[in-house]
Specification:
By secondary structure, the chain is α/β, with parallel strands linked by helices. The protein is built from 9 helices and 5 strands, in the order ααααβαβαβαβαβα. The chain has 2 domains: 3-94, Orthogonal Bundle (Methyltransferase, Methionine Synthase (B12-binding Domains), Chain A, domain 1), CATH 1.10.1240.10; 102-221, Cobalamin-binding domain (Rossmann fold). 55% of the residues lie in helices and 10% in strands. A 5-stranded parallel beta sheet has the order 2-1-3-4-5, sandwiched between helices. It is globular. The protein starts with a helix and ends with a helix. The structure holds cobalamin. Residues 55, 58-59, 61-62, 65-66, 72, 75-76, 79, 111-118, 120-121, 157-159, 161-163, 186-191, 206-209, 212 line the site of cobalamin.
Length: 222
């Protein structure tokens, strides 16, 4: 199996590294960590490792969950395995940028625990020279408002992965505007669309982390 396919497979199986006891049949076998290192040593680009190994693995996990082939515990192991791989390529994606272009306040909205996509967006933004203030997951509207007040020029970036938590993005925008805060808002996450962004009054939407960077730059200069 070629290396990127192996990484994809190991994300799906949720096998972090050779010392991980999960899953039983892969115990002591190389995991995502070892395979990402091997791929880097081999000259595979971090971008390919990200899109063709880690992210594509996570998409398969989503499909398997939808088809009832796996359940939440397995999904959690996959998320951990993906995160270990992301951490490895993080320094390469982020690089060493000395010129800061602006600030983005980033958070997953209230009720939502998904943070892989948000973290990826944060990494790409940092790599492009943005200062990122990461509010983490399950972030109440009041926290977005408090931090926005301290950073009136910052862009707010919100992530939601559940259809039930998407509406909390509108709550944040409404709270910002009722507090007279004019921070520009961009949103994303698998169920989010451009039409939804327009409907709730967000200034920007992007479907992936690369586009999030150009969007943030656009919002900064608008
Ligand atoms: C991993 C995962 C989990 C993990 C999360 C671990 C973690 N630390 O994040 C765990 C196991 C905890 C989990 C829990 C649950 N999950 Co879940 N999960 C997923 C899964 C498989 C992958 C998500 C992911 O990481 N994708 C990879 C990243 C890179 O992609 P991304 O998040 O979309 O991000 C990209 C873009 O969207 C965009 N983006 C993201 N955020 C932002 C923000 C901004 C500002 C911008 C500009 C762009 C942007 O850029 C990112 C990078 O390119 C998805 C399936 C899927 N297809 O999405 C289900 C999925 C989201 N989960 C689902 C469900 C139902 C749940 C649970 C309710 C299950 C349960 N019964 O408990 C719980 C909810 C917990 C909660 N309250 O949040 C459903 C949601 C259905 C729906 N329509 O609402 C999905 C779609 C699975 C499915 N097919 O049914 N989950």
């Amino acid at each position: 199996m070629e290396l990127l396919k192996q990484i994809e497979y190991l994300v799906v199986r949720g096998h972090i590294d050779a010392s991980s006891r999960y899953p039983k049949d892969l115990e002591e076998e190389p995991g995502v960590k070892e395979k990402v290192s091997e791929a880097l040593d081999y000259g595979v680009t971090p971008q390919d490792i990200l899109t063709k190994g880690l992210i594509s693995g996570m998409s398969l996990v989503g499909e398997k969950y939808e088809n009832n082939e796996i359940f939440v515990p397995e999904m959690l192991f996959s998320a951990k395995a993906m995160k270990s791989g992301l951490n490895q390529i993080r320094p390469l994606l982020v690089g060493d940028v000395s010129i800061r272009v602006g600030t983005v306040i980033l958070g997953t909205v209230f009720g939502d625990m998904h943070d892989i996509g948000k973290n990826l967006v944060g990494m790409m933004l940092e790599g492009a020279g943005f200062d990122v203030i990461d509010l983490g997951i399950n972030t109440p509207a009041s926290t977005f408002v408090d931090v926005a007040r301290q950073h009136p020029d910052a862009i707010i970036g919100m992530s939601a992965l559940l259809t039930v938590t998407m509406k909390n993005m509108k709550t944040v925008i409404d709270s910002l505007r009722s507090n007279n805060l004019k921070n520009r808002v961009m949103i994303g996450g698998a169920p989010v669309t451009k039409a939804f962004a327009e409907e709730i009054g967000a200034e920007g939407y992007s479907m992936n982390a690369n586009q999030a960077v150009s969007l943030a730059k656009q919002l900064l200069s608008a």
